[in-house]
Write a structure and sequence with these properties.
FAD/NAD(P)-binding domain, 27% strand, binds flavin-adenine dinucleotide, 19 strands, 6-stranded mixed beta sheet
Length: 392
């Protein structure tokens, strides 16, 4: 029997765990090293579009990830008067599901366990080498056929390999929280909707994640000191979004504030080391695709390596993976950044811009290109619309 190829992964977030499952399924010996003392998802809820959902299916983590989750059918934007700017149905054959991050990560961790992936926590990676090594803060070093940095926006792996060409933080940021849902929270006519409310440069995004919880994102520029206070100024936000006062009142005592990052790397690999996810291609969350892209790139990486029998062929396989996948990721990053710019337009101009853009089939195709993409490694899964027909 051929010797098992060995991968070591820095970072046990969505991208790292998806990559670990994908490689484990293909017979690799995989160990994930996570800095925290447990696998723990930062943040509250997360949007997963059709592409990410297909990846979860291919990884065998879909059912557990979306159990009880909210499957919305409309994405609606409203202006400063509460009037609808745009109310776009989400096509029946394209799923958008919002889930709790902790549930999604737990589903990936369980799939990883089934495929023999080992997870070592409290292990801080401080770098990697093109020889397939990970270096740790405690002085340890491990060597494998492949070292993968999925260690997030401040990636030590990216920096140590000299791959970084850009790490920029956006002006805009978000307060994110989950509140308990109560009957009547969302008016009946708004059931099944994701609702993005605008007022000046402030935005209030309402996202149910299951029957019991609603994920709220309150976004504004980082220099809007009053609005970004982590002890949320409920009077201020309620004055801007009066229709949602009842939700704002329920926000807890302390909420975390975070800005968004954009990262770009010269290449995604160097010899026997690779990077992916936010470490390689972080994007603002405007299209809800950062996590989807991280998982999608992890699965694609495992497919690119599927035929490798001799470790010496890994560097070429990594280059082929990047050449195939990078254009979609960069497209998605660009359009996510572009969408972010509408936050800085005056209200009336924003309304006209969103309406014009979203009614233009070309613009809409660009915005949803990642969501509509067929992720590498999911070709065997029928389109969602056809599955319903087969099931009948
Ligand atoms: C406000 C906001 C909203 C978002 N909403 C969405 C959304 O709706 N849909 C979507 O798809 N994406 C969304 N994203 C993006 C998404 O969260 C990220 O793209 C995704 O989490 C990237 O996964 P990752 O595994 O690459 O990185 P991370 O999730 O950051 O995971 C990195 C892991 O590495 C660990 N780590 C870090 N440094 C080290 C080290 N030195 N050694 C060992 N371990 C280390 C961390 O503890 C962490 O566990 C959002 C992002 C933000 C900021």
């Amino acid at each position: 029997m051929a010797k098992k190829l060995k991968a070591v992964i820095a970072g046990g977030g969505l991208g790292g765990m998806a990559t670990a499952v994908a490689l484990g399924m293909r017979g690799w010996d995989v160990t994930v090293y996570e800095r925290q003392n447990a696998l723990r998802a930062a943040g509250s809820g997360i949007y997963i579009w059709e592409n990410g959902l297909r990846v979860l299916e291919a990884l065998g983590a879909y059912d557990a990830a979306v159990e009880g989750a909210f499957h919305g059918h409309y994405f609606e934007q409203r202006d400063n008067r509460g009037e609808i700017i745009e109310s776009a149905p989400i096509p029946a054959d394209k799923r958008l599901i919002t889930v709790k991050r902790s549930q999604l990560l737990a589903a990936l961790a369980e799939a990883a366990r089934k495929h023999g992936v080992r997870v070592e926590t409290s292990m801080e990676v401080i770098g990697a080498t093109p020889r397939g090594e990970l270096l740790f803060a405690n002085g340890q070093r491990v060597r494998a056929d492949l070292a993968i940095g999925v260690d997030g926006i401040w990636s030590r792996v990216r920096l140590s390999l000299g791959l970084e060409i850009l790490h920029e933080q956006t002006v805009e940021g978000a307060l994110r929280t989950v509140i308990p849902a109560q009957p009547g929270d969302i008016p009946e006519q708004d059931g099944g909707k994701y609702i993005e409310n605008w007022n000046g440069k402030r935005r209030f995004l309402i996202t149910p994640i299951n029957d019991d919880e609603i994920y709220l994102a309150l976004t504004c520029p980082g220099n809007d000191e009053a609005a970004r206070a982590t002890t949320v100024d409920k009077a201020l936000w309620s004055a801007d979004f009066p229709a949602w006062r009842h939700l704002i009142e329920r926000i807890g005592a302390e909420v975390s504030w975070g800005v968004y990052s954009v990262t770009k790397a010269r290449t995604w690999s160097s010899g026997h080391a690779a990077i992916l996810g936010d470490a390689a291609h972080a994007q603002p969350p405007n299209l809800g695709q950062g996590g989807g892209m991280a998982m999608q790139m992890g699965l694609a990486l495992s497919v690119a390596l599927a035929d490798v029998r001799d470790a010496r062929d890994i560097p070429a396989a990594l280059e082929a993976w990047e050449a195939a996948e990078r254009p979609l990721v960069e497209h998605c990053q660009k359009w996510s950044c572009l969408y972010g710019e509408v936050a800085f337009l005056p209200d009336e101009v924003r309304t006209r811009t969103i309406r014009a853009a979203m009614s233009d089939p070309w613009v809409s195709a660009q915005v949803f290109r990642a969501a509509n993409s067929l992720p590498t490694g999911t070709e065997h899964l029928l389109p969602w619309s056809e599955r319903a027909r087969v099931a009948v």
